[in-house]
Amino acid sequence: MSQTQMLKGIIDGCLLAIINEEECYGYEMATRLSHYGFSSISEGTIYPVLLRLQREELVSSTRKQSTAGPKRKYYNLTQKGEDELAVFLRNWNEISRNVNAVITREVEEEEK
Amino acid sequence: MNAHVLSKTSQQFLENLRMYLFTSGKRESEINDILQELTEHLTDAEREGKSTEEIVGQSPKAYMKSLSSEMNRDYRTWGLKIIPMLLLGAISFLFIQDLLQGEFAYSTIQITGYLLFIISFLGGVLIAFNHLAKSKKSFLKEMTWLGIPVLLSMLILIGALILDQNVVSPMIEFGIIGQTLLSFLMIIFVISFSFWARTFILPIILIAFHLPPILLAYTPLTTDIQSLLATVIAFGVIILYLMFMNDEDDEKSYAT
């Protein structure tokens, strides 16, 4: 399975988490994503996701002066977005715990 | 901060994206919005020495599709363009046929039928468009919402035409002046509409269906062969035109 396929849905949660830290614009999000290790996905991938998050009213946006100078489109979490982030974190913790359990058990069995 | 001029590849990509989203019937404000955001992103990225490919991925076409699928269709403009075209097309088609055959007189039932058809068709479809424009719907829902008014208005029209065949109602005739005036109006209408909608599909269809029979009438072929040939030519011309237009669209959105 390619990373891109596995990442569907996970990217949504990661963007919510990044925006939750502080309001930011697309380029900052992409830079942070790759800074955290998601360097294999192309930066543009975030925009279809942002369009979806906006349509589902999980994020809102405003255009304003960026720290670097020119105007940029900044994203914020809405209340609905914060709730969705909480759901994502709960789900993610459960999934990662389960996946880890499956993998480590398999590894242990191999070692026996 | 000095202004950065985007690379040719990025500019080309943005141009293609605009064309792609526009021909996919997306709302203009949303197109401008995403293009502005991507222009800013590409500018920032190129300043740091990144290539266009690092942003849009290996397949620009696939990337355009993924953006497009998250954007709303512009039902109002779309409706304002496609619907009048269908109606005008159907009406001018019928009129020109009657005009060429010299049967330019209609019964009151026929005319009422046409009017009711136009009103129910336009009204129904506009209501559907307004409803659909509010949020993103599945393809099936879109088709159902649009299909119902189209089907209903067609039933009204067919009903009126059947009634007309069985019930005699007073005829309304257009004299020579009326006919000339109507045909003149029709031609102006078709041409200006084509320029406005930026497609010549309507005049192409009209010519493809009506010109060959007239020309073929001068040949020594039997009428059966004439009408067969006319049909083949008509569909051939229309298919060629559509293929030609499609190729042009593809080239525009593909080249990156």
What is the topology?
The complex is a heterodimer of chains A (112) and B (256).
Chain A: H1 3-7, H2 10-21, E1 24-25, H3 26-35, H4 46-55, E2 59-65, E3 71-77, H5 79-111
Antiparallel strand pairs in A: 1-3, 2-3
Chain B: H1 8-23, H2 28-47, H3 52-56, H4 60-68, H5 75-100, E1 105-107, H6 108-133, H7 139-166, E2 171-173, H8 176-197, H9 201-216, H10 223-254
Helix pairs in contact in B: 1-2, 1-10, 5-6, 5-8, 6-7, 9-10
Number of helices of chain B: 10
Give the N-terminus to C-terminus distance of chain B in angstroms.
29 Å
Q: Looking at this structure, what is the CATH superfamily of chain A?
A: Winged helix-like DNA-binding domain superfamily/Winged helix DNA-binding domain
Low-pLDDT stretches of chain A = none
| Count of domain modules of chain A | 1
Could you list the spans of chain B in which at least 5 consecutive residues all have pLDDT below 50?
Answer: 252-256
Main CATH class of chain A: Mainly Alpha
Kindly state the percentage of residues in helix of chain B.
over 70%
On the 0-100 scale, what is the average pLDDT of chain B? 81
Average pLDDT taken over every residue of chain A: 88
Secondary structure category of chain B? mainly alpha
Based on the structure given, which CATH architecture of chain A is correct?
A: Orthogonal Bundle
Our Rg estimate of chain A from Cα atoms comes to: 17 Å
Question: Approximately what portion of the residues of chain A adopt beta-strand conformation?
Answer: 5-15%
Order of helices and strands of chain B: HHHHHEHHEHHH
